[in-house]
Amino acid sequence: MAGHEKRPLVTVLGASGLLGTAIARELASQPIRLRLVGRRPTAVPARRQAEVEVRTVDLTEPGAVAAAVADADAVIHLVAYITGPSTWRVAATDPVAERVNLGLVEDLVRAIAASRPARPPVVLFAGSMSQLGRPSAARIDGTEVDAPLTAYDQQKLAAEQILQAATEEGVIRGATLRLATLYSQGIDSAMLDRGVVAAMTRRAFADQPLTMWHTGTVTRDLLCIDDAARAFVAALDQEQAVTGRHWLVGTGVATSVAELFGMIAKVVSTHTGRPAVPVLSVSPPKHSAETDLIDYVLDPAVFEAATGWSARVPLMHGLDGLAAAIARETATNAGETAADLIATAERGS
After folding, report:
1. Which of 63, 199, 220, 299 is 20 to 30 A removed from 212 (C-alpha atoms)?
2. For residues 105 and 42, is the Cβ–Cβ distance under 8 A?
C-alpha cells in the first residue's frame, strides 16, 4: 500500500463489533488514515499512529456504503446480520438478512465501479468456514466444492462470489478470509463477544451448568479474535499475494465441545474459587441448524505460507483472559448496582 503521497485510507465496515474493534486496534498502530464505520459507537484505540475518523451510520440507508468507502485505498467488510444474542442464524425469507449480508456487498461494488478510482481498492471480506457446507475430510484445506447448508452461509458465499467477479473485472482487488469460530480473550470489552465461548463462560460465573448437545463430540477450530485481526492486517500487507481467492484462517486444532466446555468450567473455577460447574448433555433444540452438528476444522497452511501469519494465542490462555475480563465486568456491574442501592437509600433517608 506504499507509493501514495498521503497516508493510505483504510475503511473498516462493521468497526463497532468484536472483530472490527480488534482490527481497529491493530491498524491504529500504523501510519495510515483509518475510517471506522459502525452501526453503534465505535471505540477509538487510545494509542495510535493512525489518523482516525469515526462514523456511526446505518449502512442499509441509500448512499451510505458509497459515502463510507469514498476514496478508500482498502476496505475491510465485516458487516453481518445477527438475529439473536449469540447466533448467526437467519431465515431464508428474511429480507433484512439478505439486504445486510448480500445487498451491502452489491452496494460496495457499485459504489467503487461508479467512482472509477485510478487504482482498484483492496477489499477484504469476512467469510465463514461453514460456507463450505459438509466437509469431506477431517480438516478443510480449501480445495473442496462449496455447497452451503444454511441461508446465512448461502448469502455469505453469494457475497464472496460477487467480490470475486468484481476482482476479475478489475473493479476491486478482493479476497475473502473464511474464519474459524471466533472468541475473545478479553483485551477489548467482553460485552462485545456474543459467541458460544463467552455465553458459556458467563453461565459458569453464574454457577449454572454448561449444556452441550448430545455428547459434545462435535469439533471446532477456535480462533482468538486478536489472531483473526492480525490475519486481516497480514492480508493487507500481502495484498498482491492474497487477491483473487478465498483463504482459510484458523488454528488447525480440533477441539470438541465437551473439551471446550470442560476447559471453560475449569478456568472459571480458578477465578471464582468455587468447584467447577457441571457439563451436562442435552438434546439439541428445535432451532438448531444442520451445521451445529458438523465438525469444522481448518488447515491454514496456504494462508500462512502466503502471508507469514500464524495463530499465536493458545486456547487455554485465551479462555483465561476472557474469564478474567468477565470477572472484572461482573465486579464492576455488582459495584454499580451496590452504589445505586446506596444512593437510593440516601435519597430516601
Report:
1. 299
2. no
Find the distance separating the first CA and the last CA of the chain, reported in whole Å. 64
Amino acid in the structure at residue 42: T
Q: How many CA atoms lie within 13 A of 304 on its CB side?
A: 12
pTM of the model: 0.91
Q: How far is CA 324 from CA 17, 79, 202, 273, 277, in A?
A: 20, 28, 11, 13, 17
Nearest to 218 by CA among 153, 318, 138: 138
E strand map for the chain: 9-13, 33-38, 51-56, 74-77, 122-128, 173-179, 181-183, 210-213, 219-220, 222-224, 246-249, 255-256, 279-282
pLDDT of residue 118 exceeding 70, the answer is: yes
Q: What are phi and psi of 262, to 5 degrees?
A: -65, -40
Can you give the pLDDT at residue 90? 52
**pLDDT per position as a tens digit, 242-301:** 999 999 999 999 999 999 999 999 999 999 999 999 999 999 888 788 899 999 999 999
Position 308 confidence tier, pLDDT thresholds 50, 70, 90: very high
Task: Report the alpha-carbon distance of residue 338 to residue 330 in Å, rounded.
Answer: 12
Domain 9-183+222-250+297-312 classification at class level: alpha beta
The three grid cell numbers given for residue 260, joined into one nine-digit string: 471446550
Is 80 exceeded by the pLDDT of residue 5? no
Which residues are registered as beta bridge partners of 223?
182
DSSP string over 160-181:
HHHHHHHHHTTS-EEEEEEE-E
Where in the chain are the domains? Answer: 9-183+222-250+297-312
